[in-house]
Amino acid sequence: MPNAVCAQLKDAGIKDLGVHTEMLVDGMVDLWEAGVITGARKAINRYQMIFAFAAGSQRLYDFIDRNPRAQSFPVDYTNLPETIMRNPKVAAINNTTQMDLEGQAASESSGHRHLTGTGGQLQFVRGAYASPGGKSFICLSSTYDKRGARVSRIVPSLTPGTIVTTPRTDMMYVVSEYGMVNLKGKAVAERARALISIAHPDFRDELEREARNRNLIPK
Questions:
Q1: Average pLDDT in the 79-101 region?
Q2: Radius of gyration from C-alpha coordinates of the chain
Q3: Which of 88, 104, 122 has its CA nearest to residue 216?
Q4: Could you give phi then psi for residue 39, rounded to 5 degrees?
Q5: Residue 126 has pLDDT above 90, yes or no
Q6: In terms of pTM, does the model score above 0.90?
């Protein structure tokens, strides 16, 4: 996802982006070399790309080698919400695997099957929201393939045993390939309807029925 987002930003006509991230990827090098990333408007670590770790190609590692513009810091600096919020207009972009109709994001497990650690998701969500003009985006594909069957990632309730990574109280923008909704300040019924609107069309009727059966949406 980070590389896909960077590819879209490259031709978006914006400039002077800054990077403060947990993971540095190849797409960010592309944006730096294209002049889209400069760090000129950052409040802290100006003109530097700040990250905890890098994951990508040899080209990425060659770029950061002895490069004063690319600085690796411990996660207790990069991921601390109090650090993140010091930059204005932070846009935090995170991925998730499942979300229920109240806006809880599960990014660590599928039921009791462990997938990954919590990472910096919740910290960046909170840091971005506290940043002046900042926004948090949780992105997910509307479906995934399970043994040849299409399954919705937006569900009435999370799979039993699934770990909540970002609680509903912290959720802001949610994005799928079918649109984007902002859950901040919305009542439960409004949240459910908003999330159903960006679910895969094949699952929307079923999600609405389940939402009404569970009293998430008034009958």
A1: 97
A2: 18
A3: 104
A4: 75, 10
A5: yes
A6: yes
